[in-house]
Design goal:
3-stranded antiparallel beta sheet; about 10% helix
């Protein structure tokens, strides 16, 4: 798994982060990208999964 990009978004008074990571399929071996918008403090936990 690898980080593709991390962008900081701002919505009103709450800051959010969009994280995109590459996930390898066990079945086919192909890579796909999974994007998620979350609180900036949870980004490191997201990439450790």
């Amino acid at each position: 798994m690898a980080k593709k990009s991390v962008a900081t978004l701002q919505s009103g008074s709450k800051k959010l982060t969009k994280a995109i990571k590459m996930v390898k399929s066990d079945k086919t071996g192909a890579y796909s990208f999974v994007a998620s918008i979350m609180d900036p403090s949870k980004v490191n936990d997201y990439f450790k999964k």
